Amino acid sequence: MGVDEKIKALEDEVRNTKRHKGTEHHIGLLLAKIARLKRERVSQAIKRSSVSGGGFDIRKEGDATVVMVGFPSVGKSTLITKITNAKSKVAAYEFTTLECIPGILEYGGASIQMLDLPGIIAGAQEGKGRGREILSVARKADLILILLESGSPQHYEVIARELSEVGIRLDGHPPRISVKKGIKGGIRMHSAVKLTRLSPQAIISILNEYGYHNGDITFGDDYTADDLIDVLEGNRVYSKSLVVVNKVDLTGGVPPGFPPGAVGISADRGAGMEELKKAIYEKLGFMKIYTKPRAGEVKWNEPMIMRKGATVEDMCRKLPKGFLKDFKYALIWGKSAKFQGQRVGPDHVLQDGDVVYVVKK
Ligand SMILES: Nc1nc2c(ncn2[C@@H]2O[C@H](COP(=O)(O)OP(=O)(O)OP(=O)(O)O)[C@@H](O)[C@H]2O)c(=O)[nH]1
Ligand SMILES: [Mg+2]
């Protein structure tokens, strides 16, 4: 039996098992086994797409990377050709694009890398189309742009499912569950709240499956078996997502049935492009950081564009080499400073509008 069949069989078993106290343990075990097999499948795809090259081994560039995922012929290539410097072939037939095509969108001072990909179809993670390659590129995204056609709102669920199957958790956060291995005494459980969705038996069977027989597990919330498995798997990616509805020229606006917040565009006619660029920029969460003029300089430099949450070290990486190599400390003015002119180290987290002066050794 191949990996795909094994997963199918286990999933059938989960579906056909009645859930009650007596079966919790067994279901937990099955879920953990499924997760392990899926991990195997994802890592095979990642290996394949980077070893073979095959037009999917793209280096990340710019301030952030946006990956476009959508069914065939929804207009991905039309869009990337419209808003970036890339030229990606557009045609009325499906599967026009056969590899990953990068382009750069310049907006608000940020260089945003966008990746065009072949169309994705149901069953992608089982290897349909170039599904696995597409999904492994998607794992590298800072933002996943889900492009839909105005006539097909039902495609959203299909794509969200395919992404979830390869460990991409859209707009989510890692569950607050910590697991520490011990040497003896069995598993001790701690929780900030009452656990209503996971029984002690299920927790133990899942932990055992991942090789934990002694130690401490702490829950920060009322999590599910899938959440616990996410933490134990440890390879989940938590990307942001933006839903974009193309071809609204055919429907006269975004029809009902699309997720709230979806941006309507017509890539072909160039309608909604400014709103889309702004939505991408805002979703990615950029901030402007100023470097204080050095002795003898009179003019302020252009602000540096950084992702929210960036540190002084991240900033130094964008400056000439010496700034990181000979870094001694930095002085900070602005929102992130406890007092103006505060002296900080490389781990200091910056905020929008901060002014930084790096002192070198
Ligand atoms: N009516 C309408 N047609 C559009 C629009 N944008 C793109 N198209 C058409 O849709 C067809 C497919 O466009 P592509 O950009 O090649 O689609 P794709 O998603 O890259 O397709 P694959 O590479 O095959 O996955 C072409 O015939 C485009 O002209 C739009 O805004 N409105
Ligand atoms: Mg295309």
Q: How would you describe the overall organization of this protein?
A:
- With 361 residues, this protein is an alpha/beta fold.
- The protein folds into three domains: 3-49 and 175-233, no CATH class; 52-171 and 237-284, P-loop containing nucleotide triphosphate hydrolases (Rossmann fold); 286-360, Ubiquitin-like (UB roll), CATH 3.10.20.30.
- The chain is 32% helix and 22% strand.
- It has ten helices and 14 strands.
- The strands form three sheets. Strands 2-3-1-4-8-9 form a six-stranded mixed β-sheet, with helices on both faces. Strands 11-10-14-12-13 form a five-stranded mixed β-sheet. A three-stranded mixed β-sheet has the order 5-7-6, covered by helices on one side.
- The site of guanosine-5'-triphosphate has 25 residues, from α3.
